[in-house]
From TrEMBL:
Entry similarity comment: Belongs to the class-I pyridoxal-phosphate-dependent aminotransferase family.
Molecular function in Gene Ontology: pyridoxal phosphate binding; transaminase activity
Annotated protein name in UniProt: Aminotransferase class I/II-fold pyridoxal phosphate-dependent enzyme
Signal sequence segment: none
Pfam annotation, one family: Aminotran_1_2
Organism: Duganella radicis
Length: 383
């Protein structure tokens, strides 16, 4: 069967492929600890469950406008104004089936085939994969410890910059000064920006600043993406939304209409309830404890270094003193020790591994991390 040129040169996301392999092994009865992605052991917030129960008592659940139910969009606009100081109207809110759909539609409507898109690495693989599907040119640049004017001015010409703040997988949170520098650079270059803030509620330290909180966010052409998958332990709900200038939201609706139409009404209500439920304090405390536990376990290893992330559901480790072939490392670890990790190559950074540390109980977390340590020590001593 003939397959289109666009899709035939594309590959499945490495992140979902590794998780799929771990699931297949479990289905065969094999023992696997899956750190390849982050799946929270917490339930969705009670407010979300209550909102869905109430909705199911209604006689019908109607179709909504493509961009979302008017009352839900108003609730989300109120939320981003109160929580993030983003002065958005309901017409500047677009509800989607997760952040990936919002990303695809934003790129589709903001750029044409051949346009360049700057992406910092390590990156969330969907950024690069979506650019390639849309025949855009991803320009990969190392994420610096601090974003300075000199670094920004050294970036290649591009139509769009993608920012992940807080960042997956490093956990970096941009300072207010860095956000201001990015805004000034956008004005100088005439570029536009997509800011993925899906992890904005998972802050362990510091303060999050939204680029769209600026008074000139519409002039800058800022598109901000949100998801409740990680921030509120709602991985399977596929609920997200975008905040963008109204003309761009209209364009994104034009694309969304023939693809999926509106997100399900139940999903929309769950999304609004999640965003209104506030920062998940108990979940954050648990994640912080797990983060610190892993950092203590790996401290002092000669072949692994791991920074303390300020945010997020992942830990990012440099194992380049041991190997830069982290695909091989992860393949051997999975087959020999039954632990699944995400190799850095999948995120544009060989020599690194990503650990999703928020699933299962603490005993399983300890056992999985100890298996990684023992396996790495064995390789290091044999080298």
């Amino acid at each position: 069967m003939n397959i289109s040129r666009r899709i035939s040169r594309s590959q499945p996301l490495a992140t979902t492929a590794m998780h799929g392999r771990a699931d297949a092994m479990k289905a065969r009865g094999e023992s696997v600890i899956d750190f390849s992605i982050a799946i929270s052991h917490f339930p969705a917030p009670q407010a979300v469950l209550d909102s869905v129960r109430q909705a199911l008592q209604q006689a019908t659940l109607p179709y909504t406008a493509v961009g979302g139910d008017a009352s839900v969009r108003a609730r989300l606009a109120h939320h981003v104004a109160a929580a993030h100081r983003i002065p958005a109207t309901p017409a500047e809110i677009l509800i989607t089936n997760g952040a990936k759909q919002a990303l695809y539609q934003a790129l589709y409507t903001m750029a044409d085939p051949g346009d360049a898109v700057i992406i910092f690495k390590p990156y969330w693989p969907a950024y690069v994969a979506t650019c390639k599907l849309l025949e855009l040119e991803p320009l990969l640049v190392d994420l610096p410890a601090q974003i300075t004017d000199e670094i920004l001015d050294s970036l290649p010409p591009a139509r769009i910059l993608i920012i992940n703040n807080p960042h997956n997988p490093t956990g970096k949170v941009l300072s207010e000064a860095e956000v201001a520098r990015i805004a000034a650079w956008l004005k100088r270059r005439g570029a536009r920006v997509i800011v993925d803030e899906s992890y904005d509620q998972l802050l362990f330290e510091g303060r999050h600043t939204s680029l769209a909180a600026r008074a000139d966010w519409r002039e800058l052409g800022v598109v901000t993406l949100y998801s409740v998958s990680q921030s509120h332990a709602m991985m399977g709900w596929r609920a997200g939304f975008a905040v963008a200038p109204a003309p761009l939201v209209t364009a994104m609706e034009t694309l969304q209409g023939p693809i999926t139409a509106a997100a399900p009404m139940l999903t929309q209500l769950a999304l609004a309830a999640a965003m209104e439920s506030g920062q998940p304090a108990a979940m954050l405390a648990d994640y912080r404890h797990r983060r610190d536990l892993v950092l203590d376990l790996v401290h002092g290893l000669p072949w692994l270094s791991m920074a303390r992330p300020a945010s997020g559901a992942y830990l990012w480790a440099d194992i380049s003193p041991l190997t830069r072939d982290t695909i091989g490392f992860c393949e051997q670890l999975l087959s020999q020790r039954g632990v699944a990790l995400m190799p850095g190559e999948a995120l544009g950074a060989p020599g690194h591994i990503r650990i999703g540390y928020i699933g299962g109980d603490l005993a399983t977390l300890r056992r999985g991390v100890q298996a990684i340590i023992d396996f790495g020590n064995q390789l290091y001593q044999a080298a």
